[in-house]
Predict the structure.
Amino acid sequence: MKKINKLLEGNLTYKEFKRDFWSFYLEKSSSNNFNVKDDDFFAEIQETFDWTVENPTDKEREYGYLDWQQFIKFVRKAREVFLEKGKLDFIEAEQIRSYVKIN
C-alpha cells in the first residue's frame, strides 16, 4: 500500500510505477504474501495498469487504454472502495474503470 500511497501523493512517475509495481506485485502475489481480498485489490491495480499508456494514441483509446492521469484517478477511487469495504472485486473495479474513462 506504500507504493499506492506514494503514487497518489504524486511521488511516482509512470516509468517509476511501471518499473517498481509490476515486479513488486508478481513477487508478493506469487509468494502468497497477500490474503485473497488484498490480492484481488492489487490484481485489479495491476490489470488496470496493463491497460494504461502514459499518453495513449486515439487507436489505443479505442481499444480501451487509460492515460496516466485516468489511471491515478482509478487507483484513488479503488483504494477508497477497498479501504471502505475491505475488498475490491472485479465488478467494482470495472465500474471505476468505466467512470474514469468518461470523466
